[in-house]
Amino acid sequence: MSDKTTSTERQLFILSLLAQKKSGYTIGEIIDSLKRMADIDATRRMVVRDMDYISQNFFVYEEDVGGKTVYKADKYALSEMDFSIAEVLSLYFTREVLESYTTLDIAKNGLKILDKILAKMPELSRSAMENVEKMIKIVPASAASEETDEDILEAVQTAVQESRSLQIVYSSFSTGETQTRKFDPYVLEVREGCWHTIGHCHLRGAVRDLRLSRMEEAKLLTDAFSVPKRFYEEYQKTRFDKLAGAELKEVEVRFAGEAARLVKEFHAHKADKLEEKEEAVIFYKKTAVTPDLKAWILSFGAQAEVLSPSELKEAVQREIVEMAQTYKAVNR
Predict the structure, then answer these.
(1) Which of 8-12, 134-138, 213-217 ranks highest by mean pLDDT?
(2) What is the pLDDT of residues 159-209, one digit of tens each?
């Protein structure tokens, strides 16, 4: 952590320290606490610079104690503060995330509750919030703008809660057909701003992920079902990103050049293991071979090479050939 810690992270940790100890801290004690409690390596110069910034923006001051400079937070101001710095940061983060999901009623209601909390914050807490907003910018995951029929959502929620089957009229994305089917919704999921339900589809005889916005009707049935133990945890293993498959495969992909750096920096969390080899990295993941996995690999162009499984390697090769033929036809 030490070599990647930002000044903002250090400053927030220092603020938390000062809020917890009225007698204050010397620079040396702050440095020791950063290392011991947060595994943050900081030099004296770093911390002095951090304290200069903090003193300008928060209720923090210096005091000479036995010939040593001690940094303290105003005890009178802190006594009026309903939230710690860490809690203010969490409130700010929550608000920013909720803002990206305002097409969902649960997000709208969450914002209303949060606004009520923020309106009643004491002046010091509001000041802290304003300074956190200056220091940190939250970039939430992109969310689709999509409304869901409230009656359908209520029917699915009831079905999940009571383990009752549904009769739905559903427009399939893959086939474009609208069909009536019986469906056992095991779980509701919010993904990229849209409601989904995952469960057993009697029409397909398999687990399916259905988007509620594609449901034209949803009727509760009296039929009951049982959710398999650890269903969602096991289901997640069959996903690479959004789509799932029935069979898990050991996927190995070699990334070279700029792609290797991009994978290490932005996509390492997707791998079960990353292995560095000279100027490349080998990406290991046990997952289902799905269209979004193939698309992800293709997005890196010639700097990505599928090593296994063979079916994924062949699928990528076919796509490359078809792309070449498309561009060849365009250039004629």
Answers:
(1) 213-217
(2) 998 999 999 999 988 778 899 999 999 999 888 778 899 999 999 999 999
Compute the distance between CA of residue 237 and CA of residue 55 in angstroms, rounded to an integer: 48
Alpha carbons 44 and 38: distance in angstroms, whole number: 16
Neighbour count for residue 61 (Cβ, 10 Å):
12
Q: What is the reported pTM?
A: 0.61
Stronger pLDDT, 82 or 131, i.e. the higher one: 131
Residue position matching structure tokens 């893959």: 174
In order of 78, 116, 123, the CA distances from 119 in angstroms are 18, 5, 10
Residue 163 or residue 4, greater confidence: 163
